[in-house]
Inverse folding.
């Protein structure tokens, strides 16, 4: 795996739109927020355009924006504008382009699950599951501080006081893989099908009813993805019936016998911690910590 170098403060943060469109005012407010934090910004053209429920004028245009930002020497990191839907549509236009030749922090979550899996598995590039424009506008101190240290400065991340479902004995390690549960399941049978063998599977979700979470996890179970992984990290699973969702998670995941960390504040939640994907990770239930080594 290739780890991107730390962000060079002489360079700019590139904002790219690979999925849904965003209100222009919010985009400009996001640019102002980044400048307030001390960063220069370059906004890709597709961020200002929209076609139906997609950003940009076409799938190819969004793909070209992404490749442009990776190859531009003045860009030191790439921040996704928002999620929504659409990043899976650009994958055919990325074939034959090796992003690891131009390693830069790539940051986003939700619909960016497709991109994380593509960059991690096809180009062996470590990426960052973390906040986007709307999240940074919340001005949540922990979210912003963790984003800067982990994604931009490349400082190894250790999460402390982590809760585990089943402590077991010893530690479990592997490279992280994953993202949004619904989108992970949608990759099965495709060019970006998630590969979990020997890895630490990270999952998060938002506003999915307990029966829906059940269905999604059973799909992963039947596909062998839960049995193949070395361990599991559960981010936020925000729903009005949180207790029922937790019962569903335990009902399906505990019988796998995997070491499971849960309640990590990452995903559609504040604070939204930045999780390195593709990095080596150690689950330590006795020390109640998760350590990302690179």
């Amino acid at each position: 795996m290739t780890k991107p170098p730390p962000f060079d403060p002489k360079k700019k943060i590139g904002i790219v739109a690979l999925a849904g469109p965003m209100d222009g005012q919010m985009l400009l407010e996001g640019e102002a927020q980044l400048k307030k934090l001390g960063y220069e910004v370059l906004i890709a053209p597709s961020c200002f355009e929209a076609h139906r429920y997609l950003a940009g004028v076409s799938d190819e245009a969004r793909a070209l924006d992404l490749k442009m930002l990776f190859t531009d020497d003045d860009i030191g990191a790439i921040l996704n504008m928002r999620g929504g839907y659409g990043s899976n549509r650009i994958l055919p236009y990325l074939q034959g382009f090796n992003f690891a030749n131009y390693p830069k922090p790539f940051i986003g979550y939700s619909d960016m699950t497709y991109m994380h899996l593509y960059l991690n598995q096809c180009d062996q590039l470590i990426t960052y599951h973390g906040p986007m424009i709307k999240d940074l506008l919340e001005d949540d101190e922990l979210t912003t501080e963790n984003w800067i240290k982990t994604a931009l400065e490349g400082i190894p991340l250790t999460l402390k006081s982590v809760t585990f479902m089943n402590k077991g004995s010893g530690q479990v390690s592997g490279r992280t893989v994953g993202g949004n549960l619904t989108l992970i399941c949608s990759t099965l049978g495709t060019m970006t099908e998630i590969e979990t063998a020997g890895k630490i599977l990270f999952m998060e979700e938002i506003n999915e009813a307990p029966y829906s979470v059940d269905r999604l996890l059973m799909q992963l179970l039947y596909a062998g993805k839960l049995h193949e992984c070395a361990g599991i990290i559960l981010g936020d699973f925000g729903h009005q019936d949180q207790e029922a969702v937790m019962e569903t998670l335990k009902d399906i995941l505990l019988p796998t016998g995997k070491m499971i960390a849960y309640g990590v504040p990452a995903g559609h939640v504040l604070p939204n911690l930045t999780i390195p994907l593709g990095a080596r990770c150690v689950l330590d239930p006795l020390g109640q910590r998760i350590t990302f080594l690179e």
Summary: The two ends are 9 Å apart (CA to CA). The chain has a mean pLDDT of 97. The chain is about 30% helix and 25% strand.
